[in-house]
Structure formats: C-alpha cells, structure tokens
C-alpha cells in the first residue's frame, strides 16, 4: 500500500494515499481498535454529521466568515455524503476516547478533501479548504457531535417506527383471522377465564402501537441541540447570532424541527435525553420479549405442550432428534431484547460518568443507541415476516383446553355465590367432570342457564 505524508500538531502521519480522511483520523484509526464496528455501520450518524457541517457552512456564509467559493465546495461535499456516498471514508471504531473529537475530525477531513478536489486541489493538502479553519469554523466537537448524535437518532427513529407499525398490523390481521377461535385465558400460568385468540393477538398489536406513540414523543426532546455553544456552551469563537442561524439551517436541511437548548452550558454535558430515549428502547424490548415468550409458550409441544398455535417452521430443530422444530424466530428476538436492555445499562453508566462541562463517554452512548435501534429494527422485521404473518391457530386444541378447564365457573359466581362456585370447581377437578354438567346435575342452574351463562364466546365478550 502506498502512503502520503501528512502533518498535525503532534507531527507527521502516513495516510493511505487514496484515503479521503487525514492525519487525525489515521491516528485515531490506530488508537481505537476496539470493537471492529466502524462508523460506516451507522449511516444515520454520518448523514447527520454532514447535515450539521452543511448547516454550519450556511451560517458562516451568512455571517460573513466563510467565502462563497469555499462554502459551495463544502456544501457540495456534504451533499455527496448525505446522498450516501463515501461511507468507507469513515473507518473509525465506534467506541473511542476523546468525546467524539475523532469523529468530528473524520468528517472535517473527508469534507475538506472532497471540497479541495472540487476546487482543483489534492487530497491531504488541506488547501484551499482547511479541515479546522473552514469546515470546522465556528464549531467545536462538543457542540457538533452531540447535535449530530441527536439528529441521527431522529433520523433512525423513522425506520424503527415503521417496522413497529408493520408488526402491529400483522398482529391485527392475525387477530381478525382468529376472531372466532375461543380459548382459555391464563394468569400466573394457571387456568383463568375464556377469551379468543383474536383478543390475545389484538392485545399484542395494541401494546406495540403504544410504543410508536411514546417514541414519537421523544423527538422534541432529542431536537433540543447545543449547536453554537462550541467548547463548553459559552459560544467562544462563534460569531454573534451563529447558533440561531445554524440551528435554523439544520432544521431546513434535515426536515426536522430543531431548537436551541435553553442553557447551552447544561446542554454540553447533560445526557438526559439519551437516557430517556434508551429507556424507551428498553421498554419496547421488554414488550417484544414478553410477546416472544408468549408465542413460544402458546406453540409449545406440539403434543406435550399447549400447542394452541403453530409457528412457521423456519429450520430443523435438532442434530439428534428427527422431526423437531424449534421456535427460533421468537428465540432470537428474546436475545436481541436482552442485549438492548444491557445496552441501556451501559448508557446509564456512561451518562453518569460526565465530569464538569463535558461527558467524554458520549461515543459509547451513541454506539449503543444506534446498535439497539438497528437490532430492534432487524428483529422486528424478522419476527413479522418470518413468524407472525404465518401463525396458524389450532382451534380444536384451544377448545379442548377450554372445555377441560374449570375457569368458566367464574361466570356462575353472581348467580350461586363464590363459595358454592369454589366447591363446584374443586369437585369438577376431582371427578374429572365439566362445570356445566355438574352444575346442572346439582340443581345449581338449569340446562338453559348453563348453556347461556357458560357459552365461551359470550364469556369472552361479556359486555
């Protein structure tokens, strides 16, 4: 491999000759070989960085601190990155020291090299457009990086929200298909009262739709940015009015309403919005995991378990037991949810670890948030397409369980009382008799009353 010699404040650095990045990115590439997961895996973050740099350039032009020639070249470079090009030019490990400085400089260097090539320069010359003096003008990592992370989460949220809605739609479609399938409801894994499988699946849809709404409620909080605060929130080295102009431009570029944080010093170190957003992802994960648990339990068997639903057969289930098929899709969703919950704890520790006017652990927060979003998005899509859409009901098995249960006795309590109902239930279990037959035999109800009061569909919809 051939290299070009570049220089930074620490000395000379050999950079791959064709690389769009420069000296500081190359140093960081060597320093932070941690996860093997690079920034290129998080396209929303790269896009948000380019949008932020473009907004800064627009503000600098309007305020007279950037020439129109450099402005046009910088914006053209940013547009290429926003369009999805040059992802390979962001090679840094997602977890790194420096509070995001290496990420910011990676963006500065790539944009400067693209701009310089447009103006007839060469990579690594840092002229006529300089990474710090021009691309990073009026900015600090400490306002650019948090702003870009917040915007990137807003961008990534849209994909996740759409996947949740699609999964909820699939549960609703199955709920309609199972509307007439009566079954036994269960509490604490014990027999409860009748319901329909449609009601059970409709509840899955409802609980997911709740979280779409809750996630959307996070967006205004994520939209409060500290752009213009520069190093610690005082706005040093930014021209008067820069923050307001830059944030307005970023809103226009991104298509999302962003607002200036009320206190830029506080906003430079406070990670509260990320903790809250992570908590919402954890909430979604706990619900998805519970739903996956239910799908596994309801499909258990096929003969020795509940067996009330059949999941699509995804793959052979055993290297030693022929014919065994396991619920691998819900199982993988469970594992994704466990990881998201663990990521939330790491985010909590990182948010707490801030000191004085900055939180140096923000790269871990950004990494875990985007990792959680990506995993949840993928898991939801797999659960939807590979499992839920193909779920089938075993109506006969469900009715068999319902008729063998004593849960229907609850409906007789208003007529015969709790005590007699309890005795009836115990005797029905002991004698292996059906509640209706035993109640009529003992004269507690007439056959007509039993038929009406213990009708499973009526019990599932009592009002």
UniProtKB/TrEMBL annotation:
A GO MF term: aspartate ammonia-lyase activity
GO BP of this protein: aspartate metabolic process; tricarboxylic acid cycle
Keyword terms, alphabetized: Lyase
The keyword Transcription is assigned to this record: no
Pfam families listed in its UniProt record: FumaraseC_C, Lyase_1
All residue ranges annotated as the Fumarase C C-terminal domain in the record: 409-459
GO cellular component: cytosol
Fumarate lyase N-terminal domain mapped to chain residues: 11-342
PANTHER family the record matches: ASPARTATE AMMONIA-LYASE
Name of the protein in its database record: Aspartate ammonia-lyase
Protein's organism: Borborobacter arsenicus
């Amino acid at each position: 491999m051939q290299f070009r010699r570049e220089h930074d404040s620490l000395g000379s650095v050999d950079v791959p000759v064709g690389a769009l990045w420069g000296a500081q990115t190359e140093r960081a590439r060597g320093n932070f070989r941690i996860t093997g997961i690079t920034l290129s895996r998080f396209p929303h973050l790269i896009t948000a960085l380019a949008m932020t740099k473009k907004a800064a350039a627009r503000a600098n032009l309007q305020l007279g601190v950037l020439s129109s020639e450099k402005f046009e070249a910088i914006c053209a470079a940013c547009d290429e990155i926003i369009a999805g090009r040059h992802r390979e030019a962001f090679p840094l490990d997602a977890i790194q020291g420096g509070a995001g400085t290496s990420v910011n400089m990676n963006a500065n260097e790539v944009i400067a090299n693209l701009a310089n090539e447009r103006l007839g320069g060469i990579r690594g010359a840092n002229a006529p457009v300089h990474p710090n003096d021009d691309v990073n003008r009026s900015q600090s990592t400490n306002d650019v990086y948090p702003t870009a992370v917040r915007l990137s989460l807003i961008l990534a949220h849209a994909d996740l929200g759409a996947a949740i809605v699609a999964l909820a739609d699939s549960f609703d479609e199955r709920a309609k298909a199972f509307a007439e399938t009566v079954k036994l409801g269960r509490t604490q894994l014990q027999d409860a009262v009748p319901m329909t499988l449609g009601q059970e699946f409709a509840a899955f849809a409802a609980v997911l739709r709740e979280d779409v709404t809750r996630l959307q409620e996070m967006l205004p909080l994520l939209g409060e940015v500290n752009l213009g605060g520069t190093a610690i929130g005082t706005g040093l080295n930014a021209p008067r009015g820069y923050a307001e102009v830059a944030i307005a431009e970023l809103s226009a570029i991104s298509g999302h309403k962003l607002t200036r944080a009320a206190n830029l010093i506080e906003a430079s170190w406070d990670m509260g919005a990320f903790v809250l957003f992570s908590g919402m992802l954890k909430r979604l994960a706990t619900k998805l995991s519970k739903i996956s648990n239910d799908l596994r339990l309801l499909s258990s068997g096929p003969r020795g378990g509940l067996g009330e639903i059949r999941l699509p057969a995804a793959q052979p289930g055993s290297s030693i037991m022929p014919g065994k098929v396991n619920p691998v899709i819900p199982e993988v969703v469970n594992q994704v949810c466990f990881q998201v919950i663990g990521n939330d704890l790491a985010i909590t520790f990182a948010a707490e670890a801030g000191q004085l006017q900055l939180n140096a652990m923000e790269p871990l927060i950004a990494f875990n948030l985007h990792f959680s979003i990506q995993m949840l998005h993928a898991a939801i899509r797999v659960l939807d397409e590979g499992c839920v859409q193909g779920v089938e009901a075993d109506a006969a098995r469900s009715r068999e369980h319902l008729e063998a249960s004593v849960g229907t006795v609850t409906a007789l309590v208003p007529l015969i009382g709790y005590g007699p109902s309890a005795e009836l239930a115990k005797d029905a279990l002991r004698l292996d008799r059906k509640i209706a037959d035993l109640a009529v035999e003992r004269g507690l109800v007439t056959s007509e009353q039993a038929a009406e009061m213990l009708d499973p569909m009526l019990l599932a919809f009592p009002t």
